[in-house]
Amino acid sequence: MRAGAGAGGWTVALAVGLPLAVAGTVVAVVLGAGGGSAVPSPLHRAVDAYLEPVGRGAPAPAPGADARCPAGSDPRDSLRALAAEFGHRIVSSTRSGGGAVVNVDLVPPAGEPIAVALELRRSGDRWEVCAASRGHVEIDPF
Questions:
Q1: For the residues of 35-59, what is the DSSP string, one character each?
Q2: Neighbouring C-alpha atoms within 13 Å toward the C-beta of 95
Q3: Upper half-sphere CA count for residue 1 (Cβ side, 13 Å)
Q4: What is the pLDDT of residue 91?
């Protein structure tokens, strides 16, 4: 059936095109860091701003005045227990409202990458890294 061949043709085109457009949008969000975007999202910038000093052995950035992370929840020490020094690579992310999970690979100077899932909360216009756990969270873009 050709698109535009009667009312039914347009319905088929919309029924097929709409899920593809939605799937493309979801995949772009999930793959934002490696999906060709020149400017990282605020969420990914927050992860970079947190992991760059922590990976060099420097103090973690101070939480904002309106931070929504539970008190004492800074995962710096648990990340350093995995590797004293590391670089990082953002693998994928997902967010819902004021919470997010970002899968990263910590890349120590020697050894294999270490999969870590970071939990973040939004405080006003700023994202805060609240927790880290070993492994990646499965993110289903569909």
A1: TT-SS--HHHHHHHHHHHHHHTTPP
A2: 18
A3: 12
A4: 96
pLDDT of res. 61: 87
Question: What was the pLDDT predicted at 73?
Answer: 80
Distance (Å, whole) CA 46 – CA 67: 13
Helix residue spans in the chain (DSSP H): 6-30, 42-55, 76-82
Q: What is the pTM of this model?
A: 0.70
10-residue block means of pLDDT along the chain (142 residues)? 43 36 36 51 94 95 80 88 96 93 96 96 90 91 61
Measured CA to CA in angstroms, residue 10 lies from 2, 3, 21, 22, 24 at distances of 9, 6, 16, 18, 21
CA angle 27, 96, 140 (to 5 degrees): 35
Q: Exposed, middle or buried, 74 (CB in 10 Å: 0-12/13-18/19+)?
A: buried
Count Cβ atoms below 10 Å from residue 23 Cβ, excluding itself.
12
SS3 breakdown of the chain: % helix, strand, coil, rounded to 5? 30, 25, 40
